[in-house]
Amino acid sequence: MSQSISKYLSKIKWKEVFSFIIIAVILFVILKMLTGGLLGTSLVVIENGPHSSMWPTYDQGDMFLIVKVKPENIHMGDVIVYRSNLNPNIPDSQKLLIIHRVINITKISTDEGVEYYYRVSGDNPDSNNYVDSYNISSTLIPYNAILGKTVFLIPKIGYLRLWLSTYPFVQYLVIGFLIVTLIYLILSPEEDKEKKEKKEEKNEEEITKKEKTNVKDKIVKNLQQLPRKTKDKVVNIFRDKRSRTKIILSVSIIISLIILIPILDAIISNRSIDTGIKDVSLFQIQEYDNGEIYFIAYKIYFLHDGTWNKVLKNFNCTLIQNGKELSYMYWYSFYQKEGELTIGGSFIVPTTDFNVTQPFTISISYSIHLRFGQDTPYSFEKTFNE
User: SUPFAM superfamilies attached here (predicted)?
Assistant: First the structure.
């Protein structure tokens, strides 16, 4: 019995089996992250669109990597994914997942410690100019309803996930293919005997050669010769005409790229657009949560001329009244947005702190990062009389 088992095991190509198992594990992890999450990490796709609630920052088909973090590690401006509780009678697995930006963080002290709650809203100024309601009575989202915050984005690759969701049988085909291939690798016949014997002879010769070589002496010898070999290589580089030419060409190409990229960037840019914040307009002021807070919605007119050298992927907005900073909002994008865009912004402020009859100012600060050059800080302010 033991001989037959040994004979059977000797036929298995373990290297191929292990390689396939590794590939299968990787595919399983990806599928698990796509469908339900793994170790607090998931892949989430924006499904509605085009012009979804997070447009123009993100849109349908964008795939996010989300990670479950501690409540204190969720910050203003973070894009989070949470389970809506507008329909509390259905299981959690069937509740709607929403991906929106954090616009307010509220800490409530209890006997058990500090509890974190969040308010969120989308970036689309036309279809999402409101605070998300977590349930029918409150806009506060508890920490335990949050699946995680986004830490990475792959644009448009999520269409594959949407396609798999539309045709779920494809997932079963992939799993079936993996199982069949694994069985084939395990039960595949032994290699040709002659080839196997040659392979074994070659392996024995290689082992014999290795045994004859004293590894320790070889390492010591190489270390002793290292300074001399390094010196000789450096000297030969400058003595050899071909090596000198390669160095000169490489340095010249690098310098040329540094000089030419900004020039070419400026040539192909949209000269009618100056990168930065062009304007801000007030949209509405609404009361929420039984008059406890004001939701101040506004539109930010964002411009980017399309040049690669200029980077503007974040800005800070501050609400000021009577010289006092009452609230702020942070916006960022994982990748550079280009052209003329209208982005929805919002403030959450207690009704006791804000007087709707008095003027207030929206101040926006940002920096344009130059890949070849220094960052340039900018600011934009506009005062409104309500």
Answer: LexA/Signal peptidase (SSF51306)
**What's the domain range around 251?**
231-268
> Total structural domains in the chain?
3
344 in a domain, yes or no? yes
Same domain, 280 and 261: no
Task: Give the residue-averaged pLDDT of 246-275.
Answer: 69
Question: Has residue 87 got a pLDDT over 80?
Answer: yes
- As a three-state string, the secondary structure of the chain is CHHHHHHHHHHCCHHHHHHHHHHHHHHHHHHHHHHCCECCEEEEECCCCCCCCCCCCCCCCCEEEEECCCHHHCCCCCEEEEECCCCCCCCHHHCCEEEEEEEEEEEEEECCEEEEEEEEECCCCCCCCCCCCCCCCCCCEEHHHEEEEEEEEECCCCHHHHHHHHCCHHHHHHHHHHHHHHHHHHHCCCCCHHHHHHHHHHHHHHHHHHHHCCHHHHHHHHHHHHHHHHHHHHHHHHHCHHHHHHHHHHHHHHHHHHHHHHHHHHHHCCCCCCCEEEEEEEEEEEEECCCCEEEEEEEEEEEECCCCCEECCEEEEEEEECCEEEEEEEEECCCCCCEEEEEEEEEEEECCCCCCCCCEEEEEEEEEEECCCCCEEEEEEEEECC
pLDDT in tens, 111-128: 989 999 999 999 999 888
Indicate which CATH number applies to the domain containing 352: 2.60.40.10
Q: Are residues 257 and 291 in the same domain?
A: no
- Does a structural domain hold residue 171? no
245 and 296 assigned to the same domain: no
So what's the pLDDT on residue 212? 54
pLDDT at residue number 208: 58
Show which of 121, 138, 157 is a domain's final residue.
157
pTM of the model: 0.69
Same domain, 73 and 135: yes
